Amino acid sequence: MRKHTIVALVEDRPGVLNRIASKWRQRGFNIESLAVGHSEVPGLSRMTFTVDGTTTDVDQVTKQMYKIIEVVKVSDLTEHDIVHRELALVKISATPQQRSNVIEIVDIFRAKIVDVSTEALIIEVTGTEDKVDALIEMVRPYGIKELVRTGRIAMARGARTPMALDGEKGEHHRYRSAGEGKAKVGSLM
Amino acid sequence: MKLTGAQIVMECLAREGVEYIFGYPGGANLPLYDTLVQYPQIRHVLVRHEQGAAHAADAYARVSGKPGVCWATSGPGVTNIVTGIANAWMDSVPLVCVTGAVATWLIGRDGFQEADATGITVPVTKQNYLVLDVNDIAQTMREAFYIATTGRPGPVLVDIPRDIQQEKTDFHYPEQVDIRGYKPVTKGHPAQIKKAAQFIAEAERPVILAGHGVVISQAYDELRDLAEKAHIPVICTLLGLGGFPGSHELFMGMPGMHGMYWNNIAISEADLVIGIGMRFDDRVTGRLKDFAPSAKIIHIDIDPAEIGKNVRTAVPIVGDVKEVLRELNPQVQPARHDDWYNHIQQIRRDHPSIVIPDVDKVLPQYVIKKIYDLSPRDTYYVTGVGQHQMWAAQYFWGDNPASFITSGGLGTMGFEVPAAMGVQFAKPKSTVWSIAGDGGFQMTMQELATIVEYELPVKFAIINNGYLGMVRQWQHFFYNDNFSSVRLFQPDFIKLAEAFGMPGVRVSDKAAVEGAIQSALDHPGPVLLDFEVEQQEDTYPMMPPASSLAETIDQPVFEDAPQKVATS
Hints:
- The complex is a heterodimer of chains A (189) and B (568).
- Chain A has five helices and nine strands, in the order βαββαββαββαββα.
- With 189 residues, chain A is an alpha+beta fold.
- In chain A, strands 5, 6, 7, 8 and 9 form a five-stranded antiparallel beta sheet that branches. In chain A, strands 2-3-1-4 form a four-stranded antiparallel beta sheet, covered by helices on one side.
- Chain A has helices at residues 16-27, 58-66, 99-108, 129-139, 169-178; strands spanning 3-11, 31-38, 44-52, 71-76, 82-93, 112-116, 120-127, 144-149, 153-156.
- Chain B contains 22 helices and 19 strands.
- In chain B, the strands form four sheets. Chain B has a six-stranded parallel beta sheet with strand order 3-2-4-5-7-6, with helices on both faces. A six-stranded parallel beta sheet of chain B has the order 15-14-16-17-19-18, with helices on both faces.
- In chain B, strand 4 (68-72), helix 4 (76-90) and strand 5 (95-101) form a beta-alpha-beta unit.
- In chain B, helix 1 packs across helix 2 (30-36), helix 10 (220-230) runs parallel beside helix 13 (321-328) and helix 15 (364-374) crosses helix 22.
- Chain B is globular.
- The termini of chain B are far apart.
- The A-B interface holds A 10-11, 15, 18-19, 22-23, 26, 59-60, 63-64, 66-72, 165, 168-170, 173-174, 176-182 and B 118-119, 122-123, 126-127, 130, 147, 179-185, 188-189, 191-192, 303-305, 307-309, 312-314, 316-319.
């Protein structure tokens, strides 16, 4: 498995998610995770996909995404030095007697307990997928009643802004045409 | 003055220079039809099925160079037109399809004749819109035409609820379109073009694979200049036929599954393949890993997603074919590849591929060849899908640009009837042949009524072998002659033609073929020729599915041996 992080800026309009999902389904691209929310540009949403580069042709993903009119920018951030995070909420069973043990685990992971009742509590954890996985394994013995994960969100480190809109969509294509077929988007930035 | 939504649609169509709308009315687009009479400069063609509207608009666009426009109502109107939209999508044809939707308060409530038009057409349109505010109609229509006709052309659907068609607002037609997510690149990258010129200079065994993009961007002169300057044989894909003059010594015909044997061998032996406005479809490449094994590939296409999709590309050039070739040609070194050219010609002499045996039977390819031989130069040929289509493509060596109109990507049987209608509307003075299969013809023959009604002089040639011929051929080759549901009961096509109001002539004698074609050409109106041809003729050459071009089976030496008789 070679996990790719693909980020897209898309018009915040009805039906856009459907177009993207339809394209991924039709072309047989397998989405591992998807996170969507507003971006810094009014009217544009930012989507973060993760995809397994061994089973999905990532070059085709970005090119096919670009064919969707509402998709303004796509980058494969994998080649960048990035910060990526996921947030999870985990509701576990915990009696008052067990709580202190749980708090210990939560502290080690720099997570938070955000809700407590007599029989359960909710842990909020933020971090890489590995960290979230590790916390989940640690609290699994208490009994996981509910689990929700946001999927990865990502951003390039430093002053570089590969998702900035100064480079036109067309420019991106022009660059790609300069590559050797399977050009890596990353080297554009 | 305030205009209704329907009037705004018509104003937009008028400003886009639309001459014809192919359409069908129904409950949800009645306001559009109510407005139609106020715009006499735009002619509406009432088809007999919405699929016919889309195919007619599609074919009209292919030969006129202008976008085709079709209308349908909601629900079944939309679902009927989807085949035509998908056909235009696969073959990159600019189409603007305006559909009526149920009133806004019924959307999502399973209203009568409601179908999710935009949802259904997402995978087969370049863009689609559901317009929920009358103030958005003008902008949407402007964008629809812009998107349909620029970049890689394609169909765009605009779905307008009935009440929005009736609401009124001020009309402003946007002068400019600026869509931040849509900036097609037309100019090729200079460094890549330079590299392409180098590769061409270094090549000893180059071939050009010319596709639909040549026809779409009308790069006929540029392609000829390139081929002549560097002395490169030109092989045209099915949709590329008509992009290069058939009488030119460098024209090699079609490659691929039913392409010329010599082309498939030439591609397999080439050291440089220049793909121009084509997409390395499986019917062209055969088994991908064995495609052009010794060749470097230069790929020129306006759609970046086509580059690297199917084949490894040494020199990718994203841009409009015409613009790219204009940049490329001056950098190309004049060259001769006589050894290579003669080598291909030798294969061609050894494996002539398209020889018509001199037998008494009426062979389908003989009929098609005679149609080509007897028709004037500026004739347009429309085909359906299957054996007759492949023969029509194999024997098409014409010089008239964009005169071979066929359903390539989607392979839509029935295309031949409404498409011929669309072509005749675009070219009223030219001869238009619909070379039809007996199966496909029966899928859309209701459009004969439209053709007679509008006095279109389309010439129909049904290549009638009483079978779904290509299916029979595959069952013969690959399913042990298990002829399953392939024998086709035929209506009396002559009576049928007469019932629609056009003369029909049955031809079952080889001696009568030429005379029938000539009399059809001489007849001022539409006419139908029913050619009862040899029933079990197979289309050769043939590259079996999942094999490589080098494994193409050439046309066998004709033996008049009794063949196994297929039964239904």
